Amino acid sequence: MKRRTLLASAAAVALAFSGTAMAEDKTKVGFVFVGPVGDGGWTTEHNNGRLAVEEAFGDKVETVFQEKVPEGADSERVMTQMALSGADLIFTTSFGYMDPTINVAKKFPDVKFEHATGYRQSENVSSYSARFYEGRAVIGHIAGKMTKTNKVGYIASFPIPEV
Hints:
single chain; alpha/beta; Rossmann fold; 5 helices; 43% helix
C-alpha cells in the first residue's frame, strides 16, 4: 500500500506540474483524510505518501491536509475550501468522498482531483486504488486449505464496492 500510495501521489503531482503555467510556480496539493494521521493504517499511509511528495519535489510543491473529515457535507466543505485556497490537485482519500469530490470538481474545473477507490470520474477527477483482491485471494486460499468443513466465509469491513 505504501509504495502504491507514493506512486499514485508522485504521478498525480507530475501531471499537475505539466499543467502549471510557469515552471517556478509551486504546485499546491491538498489531502482530505477520513481518519487521524496517526491511525497506523489507511490515513497514515496516505500521509506518508504526502510526505514523500514533499521530499521528492522539495520547494516545487506545497502540501496541505485536513484530517478526521467525515464523509458527506463536511468533506465537500473542506474540498471547496482547499480549492478556494489555491490547491492545484486534491486527493480525496475515502470511498465516501466520491460524490462530494464530483460535486466540487464541477465547480473548480481547473483543479485536478484524485479520489481513492471510487468508480466515478470526470474531466478533472481520476480514481486510484490498491490491489486489495491479491491479499484476499491468498488468505482465501489458505482458509480453504485449513477448513475441516469445506466452508469458508468472508466478513467485509465496510459495505462498499471494493469489498
